[in-house]
């Protein structure tokens, strides 16, 4: 096949593998909206867009191996599914597949890909993930052939409706995820059905569909929205710049060597839609780089790695990571690939999901405190171990709780990606609302410690209402014997334009107070 300008031509890919990749890409592009709709029932509605974004990257790359296909997929897709599907393709490469006629060999390869997904993501069979269709399909292929594999995948995909989600964003829905099928499992069944149905589109036809460099079927409208927002942020703040060819915001002086001795640098990131988190906190005394993903989708490991390499001064990179599957996976992969020294602070402060049989606490408002305090310590010249220890201690001590408003109702315990909380109830106001925010937190933080209080809007609440609620929050905390030493009120960690509030309490001492008061200069925080 002939190549196109800017694209790598296909070079010697075996016919069966070539066909399988075209099948994968065609299904991802054709069913993007359907998969997003399935994912929106209990997740964040982006599985289809993530799958299509990765597939479009494979089409443009015209890879010469499954390994290069997997790397291209993961680098472009982002999110947990991008990292997991990319890892599966890379693992398949090690089996030397030449065609799809050897059922035993293909079955062994698929089982190994399934193992790669399990190793990286930690999902067990029955956790309501794509593994619940991939593993039985691979086993059926070995024992009964292609027809049996397709039937097993489809049956298993339907059966995920009876499972409780225990991985990814859907896990926060708990028992409410029962009744909805897993989009990843459905995608496995769709790909296998298409694999046996007939000849997929040619690379040229697929490339015409995705366009250069992006097409609507690959979710380019959403990508363009985020890219234009990043462009606007950088254009309005000369202290920032975007890395060429990478969606990453860094300090304009990154790598300039103008600050004297090398210091620890901070890198964070996450899905777009939480602004000003994270890119709005890039600047002196806080972050050195931030990587925005697509809306509510973690950045890819390639983004994170490029940002870290761009700002690394040789004293170490501190990654600040919120406890979401995609963030943890992609930042972890970037840390493994980084040539220099790095450490990670994991933020998991949301008490709403701290239940024994749940997925664990999410990372929310405490991220701002970690980035500010660790950034101030790094600016003082502290070493990587000290910055990591402080940041993790702050993350471990802090607790957050969110409430969303939906008309005259409110929903307690919501996440910052639209994850559902408790059943809705009549909306509270004044002291009753302040108690709803404070009461879940008071037993979770040191009763003797002074407090930093962060009250963030979720993107759709007037500052007037935030300030009024903050006054009520202070009254509740004071009545409970707590002392507020520092506070911040406004849109800090948002969920697009969701009406609601997120309260974060951080135990402080003299050292933390001094670091909070240290100079900072970012688009969203300056003193």
Any overview of this molecule?
- InterPro entries: DhaK_dom, DhaL_dom, DhaL_dom_sf, Dihydroxyacetone_Kinase.
- There is one protein chain.
- With 527 residues, the chain is α/β, with parallel strands linked by helices.
- The protein folds into three domains: 15-218, DhaL domain (Serine Threonine Protein Phosphatase 5, Tetratricopeptide repeat, Alpha Horseshoe), CATH 1.25.40; 226-392, Rossmann fold; 399-517, Hypothetical Protein Tm841, Chain: A,domain 3 (2-Layer Sandwich).
- It has 18 helices and twelve strands.
- It has helices at residues 15-30, 32-40, 47-61, 66-77, 79-93, 103-121, 131-144, 146-159, 183-197, 203-210, 220-236, 301-311, 325-337, 366-379, 384-397, 430-442, 463-479, 510-517, and strands at residues 240-242, 249-251, 265-272, 289-295, 317-322, 342-347, 399-406, 409-412, 425-426, 451-457, 484-490, 500-507.
- The strands form two sheets. Strands 1-2-4-3-5-6 form a six-stranded mixed sheet, sandwiched between helices. The protein has a six-stranded mixed sheet with strand order 9-8-7-12-10-11, with helices on both faces.
- It is globular, with a radius of gyration of 24 Å.
- The model is unreliable at 1-9 and 214-219 (pLDDT under 50).
How would you summarize the topology of this molecule?
Blueprint (H helix, E strand, L loop, with lengths): L14 H16 L1 H9 L6 H15 L4 H12 L1 H15 L9 H19 L9 H14 L1 H14 L23 H15 L5 H8 L9 H17 L3 E3 L6 E3 L13 E8 L16 E7 L5 H11 L5 E6 L2 H13 L4 E6 L18 H14 L4 H14 L1 E8 L2 E4 L12 E2 L3 H13 L8 E7 L5 H17 L4 E7 L9 E8 L2 H8 L10
Parallel strand pairs: 3-4, 3-5, 5-6, 10-11
Antiparallel strand pairs: 1-2, 2-4, 7-8, 7-12, 8-9, 10-12
């Amino acid at each position: 096949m002939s190549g196109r300008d800017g694209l790598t031509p296909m070079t010697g890919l075996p016919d069966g593998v070539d066909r399988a990749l075209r099948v994968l890409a065609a299904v991802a592009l054709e069913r993007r909206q359907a998969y997003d709709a399935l994912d929106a029932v209990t997740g964040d509605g982006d599985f289809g867009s993530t799958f299509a974004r990765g597939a479009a990257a494979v089409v443009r790359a015209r890879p010469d191996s499954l390994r290069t296909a997997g790397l291209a997929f993961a680098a472009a897709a982002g999110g947990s599914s991008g990292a997991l599907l990319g890892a599966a393709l890379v693992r398949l490469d090690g089996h030397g597949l030449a065609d799809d006629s050897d059922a035993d060999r293909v079955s062994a390869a698929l089982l190994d890909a399934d193992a790669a997904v399990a190793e990286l993501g930690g999902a067990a069979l029955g956790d309501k993930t794509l593994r619940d269709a991939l593993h039985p399909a691979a086993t059926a292929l070995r024992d009964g052939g292609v027809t049996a594999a397709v039937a097993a995948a489809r049956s298993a995909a339907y059966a995920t409706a009876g499972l409780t989600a225990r991985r990814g964003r859907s896990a926060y829905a708990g028992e409410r995820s029962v009744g909805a099928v897993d989009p990843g499992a459905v995608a496995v069944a769709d790909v296998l059905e298409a694999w046996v149905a007939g000849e997929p589109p040619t690379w040229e036809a697929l490339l015409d569909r995705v366009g250069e460099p992006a097409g609507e079927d690959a979710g380019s409208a959403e990508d363009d929205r985020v890219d234009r927002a990043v462009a606007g942020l950088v254009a309005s703040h000369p202290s920032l710049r975007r890395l060429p060819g990478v969606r990453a915001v860094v300090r304009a002086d990154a790598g300039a060597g103008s600050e004297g001795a090398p210091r620890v640098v901070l890198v964070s990131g996450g899905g777009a839609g939480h602004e000003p988190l994270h890119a709005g906190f890039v600047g002196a005394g806080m972050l050195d780089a931030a990587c925005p993903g697509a809306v509510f989708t973690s950045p890819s490991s390639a983004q994170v790695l490029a940002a870290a390499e761009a700002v690394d001064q040789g004293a170490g990179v501190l990654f600040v990571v919120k406890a979401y599957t995609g963030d943890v996976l992609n930042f972890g992969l970037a840390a493994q690939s980084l040539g220099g020294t790095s450490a990670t602070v994991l933020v998991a402060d949301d008490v709403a999901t701290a239940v024994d049989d749940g997925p664990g606490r999410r990372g929310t408002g405490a991220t701002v405190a970690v980035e500010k305090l660790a950034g101030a310590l790094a600016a003082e010249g502290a070493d990587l171990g000290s910055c990591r220890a402080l940041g993790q201690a702050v993350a471990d001590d802090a607790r957050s709780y969110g409430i969303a408003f939906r008309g005259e109702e409110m929903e307690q315990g919501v996440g910052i990606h639209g994850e559902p909380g408790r059943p809705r109830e009549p909306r509270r106001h004044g002291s009753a609302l302040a108690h709803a925010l404070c009461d879940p937190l008071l037993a979770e933080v040191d009763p003797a410690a002074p407090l930093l209080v962060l009250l963030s809007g979720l993107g759709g609440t007037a500052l007037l209402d935030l300030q009024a609620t903050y006054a009520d929050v202070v009254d509740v905390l004071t009545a409970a014997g707590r002392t507020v030493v520092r506070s911040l009120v406004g849109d800090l960690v948002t969920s697009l334009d969701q009406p609601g509030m997120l309260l974060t309490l951080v135990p402080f001492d003299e050292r933390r107070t001094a670091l909070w008061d240290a100079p900072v200069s970012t688009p969203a925080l300056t003193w």
